[in-house]
Each structure stands twice: as structure tokens, then as C-alpha cells.
Design goal:
single chain, about 300 residues, mainly alpha, about 80% helix
């Protein structure tokens, strides 16, 4: 019984940590857009700042708090770092090649990719409700991609879909490893940073409009978001972690609309509405199932 109650406490902790990460992530794209910089320059500056922040935080934990967690824990850590690094590149290319609404709507397919990969790699077989939600979401993604083909955003939509799948892979590997991989997404930022700097032609080739927004993003927003989302799989399942990307799906287009007056197309909005409806319904079902499970773990007086 004690182990079950402890597991329930860890689950609540994981939900809180991941929710904070999801909320911080919603302002990532607006800050990138506000910087008015080109994609490779953003990759170089944002990635470099995130990596520096990660090294400083990791050093403080080791020196001040005596936590001896490895920089990259084993082969699983190396794989997670590689996946997050690749996802960082595809994500940035999607930001600059499709609309924000299309990007976050397609990224919302992350939970379904996570459910499939968790089934294949971890043995966490999805419930029938998850398969139903997945089927509905595929319809929404197909609508968005077809609209992107007409609007010339197909390349950006493809990068968004690749980002969604790669992120799901990183989450699943983190879940399977069952170790502290909170810093892995932050250390991974060095991969897109180096590639961005190389493509830009070195520091002199960087094109920066308003770098203050990149500094805010790279030093504070992205490190907190990625650390929280990277820590979440230690306590909760991969599909549950991926659910918190739904916050970005809902809120990021709102921030972009308020700041840049960029509204999604009609078909894109319909596809996004289908995805969000499926995700919200699935999330509510998961929450209800979790609450029922917690109630069964509550101690009872003997009769």
C-alpha cells in the first residue's frame, strides 16, 4: 500500500513539473518571431545560450548541492541528446517554413506518436480510447498537410511532423531509461547551435534583428521548459508527458495572433480543432481514469 501511495505522489509531482514546462514552452515561438532573426542565427544563439545555462546549472548542482548525476547518463542519455538535437533543427526549420498554427497543431500529434512508441519499445499498450483519438487526429493532420500543400507550406509541415515524431522518440527513450534525464534536452542544444553557426558562416554571418528576445528565450524560457519536460518521464508515462504539449497547441497561436495578427487558414483551423478536440477528450478520459485509480489506493478503515 505504501508503495502504491508513493507512486501516486510521484505521479502528481510529475504532472506538476511537466505542466510548468508545457506553459513555458508556449512562449518559445513568439520569442523566436520577436527576435526578427534568420533560422540559422536563432539556432546558433538560442542553442548556445541553452547549452551554457545547462552547464552552469549542472555545475552548481554538483558543487553546491553535491548531486553527482552524470552529464549524459549512459547510452540512453546519448540517444536522448541526439534525438533532442535533431528535433531542435527540424523544429526551427518548421518555424520559418510554415504558419505557427500549422506547426503547433502538427506537433500536437506528439502524444499519439508517444503512445505508439511506448507500446513498441516500453510495452505500455495503448487503451482502445487512445487508438480512437489517434485515428481522429490523423484526419486532422491530413487536413492541415493538404492545406499546406495548397499554401506552399508543405516543407514546413513535413519538418513539423518530423519534429513531433522525433520528440516522441526522445520522450519514450527517457521513459524506458527510468533515470534522471532532465538535462538531456538542454545539453542537446549544442547540436543545433553548432550546425546553425556553421551554416551561418561563423559569428560574422549571424543575422540578428532584436537579440534581446533570444537571450530571454535561451537563458530562461527554453531551459526551464526543456528541463521540466525532460524530467517528467521519470514520474509519469510518455503519452502523459506529451499531453502537455497541448498547452502550446492552444496558447501559441493565440499569442501569435495577439502579437503579429497571424490567423490560421480555415482548413488549418478545422484540422487543428479536430486535433485539439481529440486530445482534450483523451486527456479528460485519462484524468478520470487516474482519479479512479487513486481512489482505489486510498486507505480504508477495516469493516
Amino acid at each position: 500500500m505504501q508503495d502504491q501511495l508513493s507512486a501516486a505522489t510521484d505521479h502528481r509531482k510529475g504532472l506538476l513539473i511537466t505542466a510548468i514546462g508545457g506553459l513555458m514552452l508556449t512562449i518559445d515561438i513568439p520569442l523566436i518571431r520577436l527576435s526578427e532573426s534568420d533560422a540559422w542565427s536563432v539556432l546558433a544563439i538560442r542553442g548556445g545560450l541553452v547549452f551554457v545555462t545547462a552547464i552552469i546549472a549542472w555545475t552548481i548542482l554538483r558543487v553546491v548541492f553535491k548531486q553527482r548525476s552524470p552529464l549524459i547518463p549512459g547510452k540512453a542519455g546519448l540517444l536522448v541528446v541526439s534525438l533532442y538535437g535533431i528535433a531542435g533543427i527540424t523544429f526551427m526549420l518548421a518555424v520559418y517554413n510554415t504558419t505557427t498554427a500549422n506547426l503547433v497543431f502538427i506537433l500536437a500529434f506528439n502524444p499519439m506518436f508517444s503512445a505508439l512508441l511506448a507500446w513498441l519499445l516500453v510495452g505500455e499498450k495503448p487503451r482502445p480510447q487512445t487508438f480512437v483519438a489517434m485515428t481522429v487526429m490523423v484526419l486532422g493532420v491530413l487536413l492541415i498537410v493538404s492545406d499546406g500543400m495548397k499554401a506552399g507550406n508543405l516543407v514546413g509541415d513535413a519538418f513539423a511532423l518530423a519534429s513531433s515524431f522525433i520528440l516522441a522518440g526522445a520522450i519514450t527513450v527517457s521513459r524506458k531509461a527510468r533515470t534522471d534525464l532532465g538535462f538531456a534536452p538542454l545539453f542537446a542544444a549544442i547540436v543545433p547551435a553548432m550546425i546553425g553557426l556553421a551554416v551561418a558562416g561563423g559569428p560574422t554571418g549571424l543575422v540578428l534583428g532584436d537579440p534581446v528576445w533570444l537571450v530571454l528565450n535561451g537563458l530562461i524560457v527554453t531551459p526551464i521548459a526543456f528541463w521540466c519536460l525532460g524530467t517528467g518521464p521519470k514520474y509519469i508515462s510518455g503519452p502523459e508527458v506529451a499531453m502537455f504539449y497541448l498547452l502550446e497547441t492552444i496558447l501559441a497561436p493565440i499569442w501569435i495572433w495577439m502579437i503579429f495578427a497571424e490567423a490560421p487558414t480555415g482548413i488549418g483551423l478545422i484540422g487543428g480543432a479536430i486535433i485539439i478536440t481529440a486530445l482534450v477528450s483523451h486527456s479528460l478520459w485519462q484524468l478520470s481514469a487516474h482519479r479512479r485509480a487513486v481512489r482505489t489506493l486510498a486507505p480504508r478503515h477495516p469493516v
